[in-house]
Predict the structure.
Amino acid sequence: MTFSAFTEPFADHPLLQERVLFVLLALPGDVQRDFVDDPRFGTAIDNYEPGKGWTLLMPTPGPLGEGSRRVVLRPKLEAASESFAKYVIAHEFAHAFLRNGGWGEITDVEEAADALAASWGFHKPAT
């Protein structure tokens, strides 16, 4: 399985690109396949510039439950600690996999993304 389409947006940020690929490769096969097989899934770099704003292309929302599954990551994750950056990346991939919904008995979307990311081995670092 190739993930080049999901890592290419981070080409100008090689360490972040490496971290994204690491997380993608660590995901269970069914999650990887879900992302690869869904044209609504993708990744992007946050290109916000103070005073200028940002430009981000996203697929148009579809019917209920069929909204965009774009994961947008900030360049500053390249400077973050490895464990924190990988946790954030996994957390955002979890949101995409869960389609911003709950997971099992967990109905809070942030708690669900944290729990799913942790089940993949990416635990939220202690603050």
The mean pLDDT is 88. The helical segments are 4-7, 14-26, 29-37, 82-98, 109-119.
